[in-house]
């Protein structure tokens, strides 16, 4: 029996323990803050930062090898620039035997401010893509985000969706969106971001989040 009054939304006796999915009653802001701090507050869809990496000098790739325990991941990148004009920013998943370099499928769409629009598709490719046609001058940089689904689930395919926005090498504005898949049921233990056809990454900030209870 408990004689505490108004403890975490409960009034009276027999106050139950707080746990995810079992919070009931009326909570004041201070109580909510306490429960959040103790990881006991029920919050679906909360973004939890896993890692941020900033590139300020040339690298061949940016690797993320800690995915945590999430069904859905959110990945952002901004001010990304490669060392060669007109190259895409690419992505490969890593499994227990190494990086996957074949079998990716995707269906993307791009649009250029001059009025050119078109598809980018494949049923067997060496990588997925994040952004198209980077440039090397001034503000010819790419920005965007991707969602990843089922990466840590060994019984499911791993999916990607992408949106990108930036200035290409011409220079003019380019945007892109679409989806891709690694069509093999396997546990993904990491991924890397790189410039296609051995192009290096010169600048960029990259952040990986897990979506809590997704």
Keyword list:
single chain; 214 residues; mainly beta; Jelly Rolls; 2 domains; eight-stranded antiparallel sheet; five-stranded antiparallel sheet
Overview of the molecule:
- The strands form two sheets. The protein has an eight-stranded antiparallel beta sheet, with no helix packed on it.
- It contains one helix and 13 strands; from the N terminus they run H-E-E-E-E-E-E-E-E-E-E-E-E-E.
- By secondary structure, it is mainly beta.
- Helices cover 4% and strands 49% of the residues.
- The chain folds into two domains: 1-42, no CATH class; 47-211, Jelly Rolls (Sandwich), CATH 2.60.120.
- The longest helix is centred in the first third of the chain and has 9 residues, at 29-37.
Concise summary:
With 214 residues, the protein is mainly beta. It has one helix and 13 strands. The strands form two sheets. An eight-stranded antiparallel beta sheet has the order 1-13-3-9-10-11-6-7, with no helix packed on it. Strands 2, 4, 5, 8 and 12 form a five-stranded antiparallel beta sheet that branches.
Output the CATH class name of the largest domain.
Answer: Mainly Beta
What is the strand tally? 13
Strand content: over 45%
Structural class determined from secondary elements: mainly beta
Question: What is the residue-mean pLDDT, rounded to a whole number?
Answer: 90
Following the backbone from N to C, one meets helices and strands in this order, namely: HEEEEEEEEEEEEE
* Assigned CATH architecture of the largest domain: Sandwich
- What would the principal axes of the Cα set say about the shape? elongated
- Portion in helices: under 10%
Uncertain spans: 1-6
Spatial extent as radius of gyration? 22 Å
Largest sheet: 8 strands, antiparallel
The domain count comes to 2
**Total number of helices:** 1
Q: What oligomeric state is this?
A: single chain
